[in-house]
């Protein structure tokens, strides 16, 4: 007989797991995300970050960071964003991270009818909890498999967490059918773990140059090895959004932690970690 973990009341569950949920803002819009591990890897939807390479990450305790999109998958609407979680007091104060490298991912088979809870920022309303059930554990949409849920999912919820009543991260909320009630979907957490493992393997082989066009990582500094797009993109609009946001002071502090270099050709300030200027393409 399967031994189940402790089941929580909604109010208790929220207090335990809400710290794993983050807000993600880009120059094009905003959504939700989930802290995946202590290394500052967060999970969200591909459509939340879209073709941006940077995002403003907001934590529940008020800390703000500039995150970098490191990999994305259009086929399941998934993206990974990395930020410096080690500089946040949340890592030390939140019980959800005590002794754990990863958020508590569900490792059992989900059941149709069991209660689940979505946490996110629908319509910009921070840390909203909604409740529902699993309608189907394996629904195929365009060759990808999703969890079908009747939990209310609204714009801003995208990329947020789907938790079980046992405090297990079951999936990442992603979409719903327009003009249909209670017909929504989440990316299964085992698929998220699988894609994260793929990224780790790619990184170990030197595939570290992210292509915002297709989501792949390449070794080549100039062109994406998957779609051929130029990797020497102009990030000035993203930087402008980050510097002019309501959190400008936090952004400036985050930028200071990422050493800057000045391009001799055009004078643009860019990350010193780059080999080429993101504005004009000149060698740094």
TrEMBL record:
The UniProt entry, under Pfam families, shows: DZR, Trypsin_2
Record's keyword annotation contains S-adenosyl-L-methionine: no
GO biological processes: proteolysis
Per the database record, which ranges form the DZANK-type domain? 211-281
Q: Name one GO molecular function term.
A: serine-type endopeptidase activity
Q: Which Gene3D superfamilies does its entry note?
A: Trypsin-like serine proteases
Name recorded for this polypeptide: Serine protease HhoA
Native organism: Halomicronema hongdechloris C2206
Annotated gene: hhoA_1
């Amino acid at each position: 007989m399967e031994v189940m973990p402790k089941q929580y009341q909604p109010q208790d569950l929220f207090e335990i797991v809400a710290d794993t949920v983050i807000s993600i803002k880009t120059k094009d819009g905003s959504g939700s995300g989930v802290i995946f591990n202590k290394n500052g890897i967060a999970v969200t939807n591909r459509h939340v970050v879209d073709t941006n390479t940077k995002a403003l990450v907001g934590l529940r305790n008020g800390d703000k960071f500039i995150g970098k999109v490191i990999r994305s998958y259009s086929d399941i609407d998934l993206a990974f964003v990395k930020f410096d979680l080690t500089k946040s007091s949340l890592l030390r104060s939140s019980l959800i991270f005590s002794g754990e490298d990863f958020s508590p991912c569900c490792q059992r088979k989900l059941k149709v009818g069991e209660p689940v809870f979505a946490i996110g920022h629908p319509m910009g309303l921070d840390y909203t909890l909604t409740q529902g059930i699993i309608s189907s554990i394996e629904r195929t949409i365009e060759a990808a498999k999703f969890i079908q849920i009747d939990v209310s999912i609204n714009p801003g919820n995208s990329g947020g967490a789907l938790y079980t009543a046992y405090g297990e991260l079951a999936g990442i909320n992603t979409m719903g059918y327009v003009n249909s009630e209670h017909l929504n979907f989440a990316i299964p957490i085992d698929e998220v773990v699988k894609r994260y493992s793929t990224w780790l393997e790619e990184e170990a082989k030197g595939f570290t140059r992210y292509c915002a066009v297709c989501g792949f990582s390449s070794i080549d500094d100039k062109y994406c090895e998957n779609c051929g797009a130029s990797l020497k993109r102009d990030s000035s609009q993203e930087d402008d959004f980050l510097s002019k946001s309501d959190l400008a002071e936090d952004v400036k502090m985050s930028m200071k932690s990422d050493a800057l270099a000045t391009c001799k050709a055009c004078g643009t300030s860019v990350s010193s970690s780059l080999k080429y200027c993101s504005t004009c393409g000149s060698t740094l």
